[in-house]
Design a protein that fits this description.
61% helix, 8 strands, three-stranded antiparallel β-sheet, single chain, 15 helices, three-stranded mixed β-sheet
Length: 350
Amino acid sequence: MVFLVIIGALMAGYGTAYVASDDVRYLTRAGIEQTRILEARRPIPAMIRDPRTDPGTRELLRVVLDARDFAAEIGYAAGETYTTYADIGRDTLLLVLSASPRNCLCPHTWKYPIVGRIPYKGFFDPAMARREAGRLERRGYDIYLRPAGAFSTLGWFNDPLYSTALGRDSVELAATVLHEIAHNTLYVKSATPFNESFAQLAGYRAAEAFFRRRGSAAAAEQAANRWADEVVLSQYYAELGRRLDSLYATVSDSAGVDSGRVELGRWARDQLQGEVGARLKTYTIGPMAERPINNARLIAARIYRTRLGLFERWYERHGADIAVAVAALDSLMQGVEGDSAYTRLEQALQ
């Protein structure tokens, strides 16, 4: 109830600003939704004991509890994260907006307290998301709206497991739990690609160790293969980004940009249907190969796949032990902000 009181006070004190400012309306809606989620939480152990819980759901909930306990055991800052469950009553938790100029791989960013500048914005209100996307599109931006089934409050609240995350297979579910808890463990201000790429390593490599501990060699191998696929896609997106940067640096007129993007779209399709696709172990390309070039979509994809090879080298440097690797990286990143995170990691690997 305390959150409702706070929000009520804010709305009373800032009524005029609420009417006049999109930012105030956005923050108010986010606060209300977060409050609803927190108040809807149910203890996962009670759900597991409840005979009315579907057996398949019960098994996935056991995976969640076991994975979060494993996270705490290997030194992740698990706290009380994922000890509760929240049914949000819809199939999409929130929509995430990314945007970029059409002639530059330059992410549009939004500034927030504590976390700094972020190259995306999450919306609980789909209409608000579409309005913001339309506004940026009218300004000539590429835009990309995608659904998200989970997010981290970086330990500020005891995040529940959202119903939108429960439909995943056990490997992806465990990796998601470990990924989000990893954000509580290490977070570099204004360094979103670094944070998300680190969490990919921390999620999949920890999931591999978790399932090995459980005696499930097949699930452990699947987690390792998904991480390997992420590394392959990281290399592909890096090369596509390099080629786009070269195009935008040498072509200034819109017609040249458009024709260059079409040509690079063909190159991307050939890569995905050829060499890159052949290297993937768990992912299928499907319609991804036919998508036209969209800077915002590429930026969103690279957020989670930026220089993953560096993180894999760090993991190997620390004996292929994810607990040791994460603890060492946390120490290395003390006092670091923004792009200097990658610089420090590179220097440490030299």
